[in-house]
């Protein structure tokens, strides 16, 4: 085996439009010894479009347990490997974490080649706040479990972002309407970078009305974004459970004065309210 260890490249690929790939990504895909692809047939279209002839091997959620070792062997032999998913950035709701973890543990280099990602594409085109957000992947399949997740985020500041499929989007939107007030802002980004790309933003009531009236809005792949509660709203309603948890965590490591100071910066809540709660928490101890 070679004394030179190979490199694992994590390469972002287009989420729809085949031109949405960086020059660096094309260089890497051309130069590596093998491309580990989630679906070789799907990725074959991309590689053919860009005249890339690098050999591919299938690497997906059903075979990652047995395919990681052969890829590690290639790296140890001094070969380089590129990991790509069906679309977008690998590991973001796609297979690859197990491989990266093993590669890092074995001492090989992992190099990210950034590019397309449906989450960031939806955020920047939505008109919903982007300074703080949480990504939940796909929400649970059942309505009860979905509502539980939505209720958790209902009183948080950050924008909630999640994926949804055409099979469940209608029921999911009904749950959003049940949980969120009609005036909360939200956005649905559909078929991003593809021929029928649509981004609809408005209040929950407005978006749901447009969604329900247009059957085309119920087809394709979706990114759903729901606005978080803003600081002014949060202050008017007192401390949220999230604020209190943040304060508790800080108090476990800092003095009350420091914990309150940091909590003000992290939550946006008033110093007076946080200090009052800190004293209550101390008295409970």
Question: Layout of SSEs?
Answer:
Elements: E1 7-11, H1 23-31, E2 34-37, H2 40-49, E3 56-58, H3 64-76, E4 81-84, H4 97-105, E5 109-113, H5 118-126, E6 133-138, H6 143-154, E7 159-165, H7 169-179, E8 185-190, E9 198-203, H8 204-213, E10 221-226, H9 231-236, H10 241-251, H11 256-267, H12 271-284
Helix pairs in contact: 3-4, 6-7, 7-8, 10-11, 10-12, 11-12
Summarize the structure.
The protein has 285 residues and is of the alpha/beta class.
Task: Write structural notes for this entry.
The protein has helices at residues 23-31, 40-49, 64-76, 97-105, 118-126, 143-154, 169-179, 204-213, 231-236, 241-251, 256-267, 271-284, and strands at 7-11, 34-37, 56-58, 81-84, 109-113, 133-138, 159-165, 185-190, 198-203, 221-226. The chain is α/β, with parallel strands linked by helices. The chain has three domains: 7-116, Cobalt-precorrin-4 Transmethylase, domain 1; 119-229, 2-Layer Sandwich (Methyltransferase, Cobalt-precorrin-4 Transmethylase, Domain 2); 232-284. Strand 6 (133-138), helix 6 (143-154) and strand 7 form a beta-alpha-beta unit. The longest helix is centred in the last third of the chain and has 14 residues, at 271-284. The protein is globular. The chain starts with 6 loop residues before the first strand and ends with a helix. The model has no long low-confidence stretch (mean pLDDT 92).
């Amino acid at each position: 085996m070679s004394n030179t260890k190979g490199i694992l490249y994590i390469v972002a690929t287009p989420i729809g439009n085949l031109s949405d790939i960086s020059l660096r990504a094309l260089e890497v895909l051309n130069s590596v010894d093998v491309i580990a692809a989630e679906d070789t047939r799907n990725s074959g279209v991309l590689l053919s479009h860009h005249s890339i002839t690098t050999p591919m091997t299938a690497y997906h959620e059903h075979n990652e347990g047995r395919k990681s070792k052969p890829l590690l062997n290639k790296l140890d032999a001094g070969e380089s490997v590129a990991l790509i998913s069906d679309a977008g950035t690998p590991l973001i709701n796609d297979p690859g974490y197990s491989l990266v973890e093993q590669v890092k543990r074995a001492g090989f280099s992992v190099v990210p080649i950034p590019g397309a990602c449906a989450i960031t594409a939806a955020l920047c085109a939505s008109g919903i706040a982007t300074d703080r957000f949480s990504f939940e992947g796909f929400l649970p399949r059942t309505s009860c479990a979905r509502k539980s997740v939505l209720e958790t985020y209902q009183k948080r500041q950050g924008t909630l972002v999640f994926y949804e499929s055409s099979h469940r989007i209608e029921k999911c939107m009904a749950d959003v309407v049940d949980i969120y007030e009609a005036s909360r802002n939200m956005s649905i980004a559909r078929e991003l970078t593809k021929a029928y790309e649509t981004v609809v933003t408005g209040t929950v009531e407005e978006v749901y009305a447009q969604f329900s009236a247009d059957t085309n809005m119920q087809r394709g792949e979706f990114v759903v974004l729901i606005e978080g509660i803003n600081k002014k709203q949060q202050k008017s309603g007192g401390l949220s459970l999230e604020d209190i948890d943040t304060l508790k965590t800080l108090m476990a490591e800092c003095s009350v004065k420091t914990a309150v100071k940091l909590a003000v910066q992290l939550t946006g809540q008033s110093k007076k309210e946080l200090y009052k709660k800190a004293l209550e928490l101390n008295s409970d101890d």
